[in-house]
């Protein structure tokens, strides 16, 4: 039986969005004077024509997951809007059409998600989004935007955690440096409230998950992913409302997102995570 514990740190997060492990914001990679990130995103919002945002609250018997991107794809109709009876082909197609990922990266992501469900669910022909809330399989503690399982339901965003995530960068965007810091901070906070230490496997998986912030929303000049930045205003809307933040300036990049790009972003997050871990108790 799940214990619903509202801990000391959770009270901080919900009330004032102040972490007991908070350190001064650190900008890390990137420069406020070298370029304006938004000016280097070439693309459009045409991909949303026919895919209006409808929140889960307006969908009968809606199923949602702890993953904001999966929920966003369902809210816009790239996946079935009720989040149910989704095939692997649906998952692959939604990533390619909505996110402009390569088919190879889409297939890798889908296979990784379904494999972590374990037998026999991983062999199913269809999935519901709530299936991906399986704790210690597809869902883990120390999420960037969700409470730990000892604190309550994990399918819903915690606005206080989103606020702390954005505060980890002093710049108008998040990058591999700030996300590496956020991952280190959340792991420390999770242990502080009594959750088990995140395993090495889930530490790596969490870095992969976080890489999508830069991969999908990051903009910048050049191939060095550590100089790319994901605008905070867009991320705040996306994470809290689970919709593509076109009103805040988001356009889908014309550049196809590849496995190699994601691997470079993960490597950057890992480097900064390891650097900042020693700064947290």
Keywords:
single chain; 281 residues; mainly alpha; Chloroperoxidase; two-stranded antiparallel ribbon; 9 helices; 3% strand; disordered N terminus
Explain this structure.
This protein has helices at 8-15, 68-75, 88-99, 103-115, 159-167, 176-192, 200-217, 232-241, 259-277, and strands spanning 43-44, 173-174, 230-231, 252-253. 41% of the residues lie in helices and 3% in strands. The protein has a single domain (8-277), classed as Chloroperoxidase. The protein has a two-stranded antiparallel ribbon with strand order 1-4. It has a two-stranded antiparallel ribbon with strand order 2-3. It contains nine helices and four strands. Mean pLDDT is 88; it is low at 1-16 and 23-40. Helix 3 (88-99) crosses helix 4, helix 5 runs antiparallel to helix 8 (232-241) and helix 7 (200-217) packs across helix 9. With 281 residues, the chain is mostly helical.
Widest sheet: strand ordering: 1-4
> How big is the Rg?
18 Å
Order of helices and strands: HEHHHHEHHEHEH
Low-confidence stretches: 1-16, 23-40
Q: What is the correct CATH architecture?
A: Orthogonal Bundle
Query: How many helices?
Result: 9
Q: How many strands appear in the DSSP assignment?
A: 4
CATH-wise, what's the superfamily? Chloroperoxidase-like
Query: Main sheet?
Result: 2 strands, antiparallel
- Give the integer mean of the pLDDT values: 88
Q: What fraction, in percent, of the residue positions are helical? A: 40-55%
CATH topology: Chloroperoxidase
Report strand %.
under 5%
Number of domains: 1
Kindly report how far apart the N and C termini lie.
30 Å
Shape: globular
Helix/sheet category = mainly alpha
- CATH top level is Mainly Alpha
